[in-house]
Amino acid sequence: MTTFREGPRMIALPQRPRFTRRTLGTMTIGSMLALSACESSLLEVHDPDIILTATSAAAAISIKNGVLGYFSGATAGGESTFFFGGLLTDEWRSGDTFEQRNSADARLVAPTNSFLGGQLRALMRVRVQGRAAINALRQFSPTPVSNIGLMFALTAWAENQIGESYCNGIPFSDVNDGVIVYGAPVGVDSAFKRAINSADSALLNNGGTDAPRIANLAAVVKGRALLNRAQYAAAATAVTAVPTSFIYQDTHSDNASNNQIWALNTSAKRYVVADNEGGNGLPFKSANDPRLPTAGTGNAFDANTPFVNTTLWAKNDPVTIVSGIEARLIEAEAALKADNFPLFVSKLNDARATKASLTPLTDPGTPTTRADLLFRERAFWMFGTGHRLGDLRRLIRQYGRAPETVFPTGPWFKGGSYGGDVNLPASFEELNNPNVPQDQIKVSCIDRNA
Is 80 exceeded by the pLDDT of residue 172? Predict the structure, then answer.
């Protein structure tokens, strides 16, 4: 069983589906479906862990709980975009011997990288099964309405995370009555629009005792997506009512998955906390910032890379995915874009006031240094939680900075030089989708460097 925390509650989740072989392409989003079209009994799949459609309230709740499990796998419960996004940027350094992780760290992520498929699949499962849960809950278990709102909110989170992490042109496929409906590649802005619409649906389909928590979750996700569309004032408006103390967490236990940030960093030493990575990176270790305590001696798994781990999380510690701190940072950015510099600094200090060891900030005084301060604060507050790649892409897209001034560049520490990737490509498995361009260079991306 897996447990997932919605605020103060612990919810028991069904065991995740087990699969006997990997499916290819966009079929992966429907990998939870039985092969009902197969006529031969030798090919029929009967797995009691897989709920295809809801026929009762209990089944609808099980689908909803399953989405929480998929959400965990797409965040800190699996090797998700939290990790590869951090490798591609300046959060993590590969202390591994696996080429898949090394190439991501060197900004040379090939579509054939075998780790990519699982990460995108995890996000798509949240999105597709979230919609299935919404339909099932509406039919068989419409109250509390906040369950439906939660499914919309998590769907919004997944849609936004796809837009922040992947190249311009990820297919959004769906499942209709057990049949995969292949989607065409869409631009990242379309992903953000979807996220905003889903967050709005979460706010509209909400009620009961859980309503405030779900409203806060949806509001911050909406604000984040609006930032990605450069709609700063609207983003600030979306999060105004979110208290700074709000948190929405992924939880872990010995009976289910451990905290994978702890597992792959502290325990297995495959990932290393980076420090001034590639010249442009932040001093995540040497800053000695209380928001990111670090430790570590000796070498990482590859026996050569000096090991640094964060002590922020222990084996089964929860990981905050969405928070009121992020709401204040969204408001700070909106104030910066409105040239309201006193409010900009005030909002940053509202967040810092939650940690006694942080001293108040002052206005650094120039457009460049103000933006640097904002994104530094975001980096230390939300380290390792899937925000950094989207932030660096926004520095390029919305702040006019050149890629080689924000991403790690120059000689790569394991040999050779950093590449030029600024996002994750779609996995080659997506070529199974007939709507995806078959050009092996593009591999389902309209523009890999969008």
Answer: yes
